[in-house]
Amino acid sequence: MAEILSQQQIDEMLQQLMAGNVDIENIEKEKSKKIKEYDFRSPKRFTREQLKLLNSIFDNFAWLFCLQVSSLLRVSCEMEIVAIEEQQFHEYNNALNDSVLVGNFSLLKGQHGEDKPLLVEISREISFSMIDRLLGGSGYGYNVQRDYTEIEIAILEYLFKQMANMIRNAWQNYVEVVSELIGIETNARLLQTVSPDETVAIIIFDMVLNNDLTGKMSICIPAETLESVFKVFKLKHTRQNKNISNTVDDSKRDHIFGALKTSDLVLSAYLGKTEITLKDLLNLQVGDIITLNTQIKEDPVMIEIEDVPWYQGKLGISKKNYAIKISKVLKK
Questions:
Q1: How far apart are CA 106 and CA 72, in angstroms?
Q2: 162 vs 40, more confident
């Protein structure tokens, strides 16, 4: 329920407003709630945990890619993830220029079912600088406004093939995947490996070459591809947790049982039982004989541990002491 102001509070507020001590715009901003729009026509398909997993996987990929580029081009390379977004493929495709450099990869080829697509796009500045370095140049001839030639694509194909191995190595700590380069596309409007309405995960990287050249790389993974990978990962993770749980339970059981082995227990052997009246009990004297309900040669002796029957045995003598030889185990 809203708070009702007294007349005195109302007068004080009016005085502050007249004096200019209160900023109405700030009050409105504080009252306004931040509302995040949600489109129910295209609900989110990736959970926060899955996006965190992608961030961890492709952070490892960025590290592997920088090592490969630094050794191949002999220049410093820095790369970091700046965003992981979920959108439809036509939105991603429309944001690309007409002339692009996109590597088309297959994921899970021949191991966990049918091939699933994965796209890697490298910005024009970075790609032309790589070509210049691979041809022996300084790497500064990247300001080129033209399409890629067949020779330049053939040169970059080697790097994309190396990238396929990096993708596989980045995933190997989580799930085994097989990645292979299918082809290189330079026209964004001809990318038809993914349906326009398909939900995709976009991983965007910032790249810095030779400490001064900046550019971007983006990886586009369709939801169908990720669902296949996450399904395999979930099964593997569940099995590992189950195995770890069983191992922990066995370890705890052995530890508890080892501690119990040193516990002292009361072991009792009963030759037999009988019933007598209270009168007979009061009249018992030294030398009286009490007849039991068992026979020494025929009926076994009951052995109890903490008042629980565990064994049966036969009465005998061992080293001049009465002893019982166990003939039957009742509990295990």
A1: 24
A2: 162
